[in-house]
Design brief:
The protein has 511 residues and is of the alpha+beta class. The protein is built from eleven helices and 22 strands. Strands 3, 6, 7, 10, 11 and 12 form a six-stranded mixed sheet that branches. Strands 5-4-13-8-9 form a five-stranded mixed sheet. A five-stranded mixed sheet has the order 15-22-21-17-18, with no helix packed on it.
Length: 511
């Protein structure tokens, strides 16, 4: 018999880290076959997104903007590394403490995959096999590093440095190859190639031409049409879904006369139309950036719903994305012929960008995105509010989500030259229309601005004016009045539960 000796600190650390990379590599490999989001790392990160307190989510969106998901991934990686190091250090004498920690992390991965609605039971193979791989590598590496002392007081030698390097590199390389293979298999259904194959979308009903005075870019406003690459993106997808047109379908069921399913070819073969529609995120703070305008190509959603035959008593169109995200839209808004709800397959004269919902998404004017703008949509269930609760409703947001009349100052910056100063910005009141925009300097009188041409009540409008400012610090405020006669309130309210209110005010230092 022999007596066990302790691992050194570096040996213990390497044991935990190699077990971690092995588990992640195997998990990613298996996920490539059973469902990309079944990768334990991705599944746990998605779980964190789905179950974080609203205050944390809002802070991340506001502070980190498009970096929120990379920061989440990095933070999760740091936590996993710390767990791996802890597992190694707790197991310097015996492997059991570390094995328990590996098992706990594995159970977390299994739970994160189990609760996902977009994955079948076979997807559990990814976290289960990842856990097994982590346990096997942890146990083997612990045994590999562990020196022994015999009854005759002879101490067995531990592995030399060269052997340690070769073994560690082999495990890490194997994990890397496994992860790369999982990435290749998981994305082998190339959405980019499928999008390229769509070609030009031929529109039967074109949108009105954009007049030259639809924006005031020369005065500092955004362009009337937001380039697709600059269009704001707020969603819960940690990994952008990769869906080919040949694999996509849309099912309409629930409280309908007949269940129907449409393929991409079914949609594209119909007469396509164009609409200019501005989308705005409910988490957009006063003066915030989460608003953009695009020319969408698709068909009337109402036509598809009428073909299914919506039954009396239906209240909600419960939409589901391929990644499991859900959205509840009032049925009356989806069916309203004057609203123009769309199933969109194109954006700005091209097929939808992958990150904005390719192959198809919902676009409904006048409603915040969380109740109207399902990307990668694949299922529409016609139901009641009581029967199903969508993702954001389950987290305390409002049910209806009409866009509130708002305005924003885009220019000038914080420092200007005293005298004549151009002030410009945007205003929006989707599906109602902007009638007037006014600004005031300090507590002076409200001054009406010049509005851009109105191309649609469903899009934003640009405005500008010129004011005299004396040297010193000044506060410039803006307010909009919509076509219903409502002038936006100065009362500051946060984004929860159904959108922010208040006048956007900026400080200007005139020299």
């Amino acid at each position: 018999m022999d007596e066990e000796r302790r691992l050194t600190l570096p040996q213990a650390a390497l044991t935990g880290l190699l077990a971690l990379v092995a588990a992640l590599g195997v998990g990613h490999l298996v996920a490539g076959f059973v469902g990309y989001t079944a990768s334990p790392f991705v599944a746990v990160a998605n779980f964190v997104i789905d179950h974080s307190p609203h205050a944390v989510v809002a802070w991340a969106e506001r502070t980190l903007e498009t970096w929120d998901k990379p920061v989440l991934k990095f933070g999760l990686a740091v936590v996993l590394v710390l767990f791996a190091l802890l597992a190694g250090q707790l197991s310097r004498r015996k492997p059991l403490p570390g094995q328990v920690l590996v098992g706990v992390l594995g159970a977390a991965g299994v739970a994160a995959v189990f609760v996902r609605t977009d994955l079948g039971q076979i997807a559990l193979l990814a976290p289960v096999l990842a856990t097994v791989a982590g346990l096997v590598v942890f146990t083997r590496m612990h045994s590999f590093f562990r020196p022994r002392v015999f009854f005759d007081d002879r101490e067995g030698e531990g592995p030399d440095r060269r052997k340690v390097l070769i073994t560690g590199a082999s495990v890490a390389a194997g994990a890397g190859v496994a992860a790369l293979a999982g990435e290749i298999f998981g994305t082998r259904k190339n959405a980019a190639e499928s999008r390229d194959a769509v070609g030009r979308l031929v529109v039967t009903r074109t949108a009105p031409p954009i007049p030259p005075d639809a924006d005031f870019v020369k005065f500092g406003t955004p362009a009337y049409v937001t380039p697709s690459k600059d269009f704001y993106r707020i969603d819960t997808a940690l990994v952008v879904p990769q869906v080919r047109t040949e694999d996509w379908s849309l099912k309409i069921h629930g409280m309908v006369d007949r269940e129907v399913t449409y393929t991409y070819d079914d949609i594209r073969s119909r007469p396509l139309l164009e609409r200019d529609v501005t989308l705005c995120c409910v988490s957009n703070e006063v003066g915030g950036p989460y608003i953009s305008n695009a020319r969408w190509i698709g068909i009337d959603l109402r036509d598809l719903l009428n073909e299914a035959g919506v039954k009396p008593g239906a209240e909600q169109m419960f939409a589901t994305s391929v990644d499991g995200w859900t959205c509840g839209t009032p049925v009356e808004a989806a069916l309203d012929p004057g609203r123009g709800a769309m199933l969109a397959i194109g954006m700005n004269d091209e097929p939808l960008p992958i990150e904005h919902g390719f192959p198809a998404r919902i676009v409904i004017p006048g409603l915040y995105g969380y109740v109207s703008a399902t990307k990668w949509v694949t299922d529409l269930e016609i139901t009641t509010w009581q029967a199903r609760e969508a993702y954001w409703l389950d987290r305390g947001w409002g049910r209806e989500g009409p866009v509130k009349t708002q305005s924003r100052i885009d220019a000038p910056g914080s420092a200007v030259t005293s005298g004549k100063v151009v002030v410009s910005g945007i205003a929006w009141a989707q599906h109602t229309g902007v009638a007037k925009v006014e600004i005031r300097v300090d507590q002076g009188p409200w001054q009406e601005t010049v509005l851009s041409a109105e191309t649609s009540k469903d899009t934003w409008r640009m405005w500008w004016t010129e004011v005299d400012v004396a040297p010193g610090q000044h506060e410039v405020a803006v307010r909009a009045t919509d076509r219903s006669g409502y002038t936006q309130t100065d009362r500051r309210v946060g984004t929860v539960p159904d959108g922010a209110t208040g006048w956007h005010t900026v400080s200007v230092n005139a020299r």
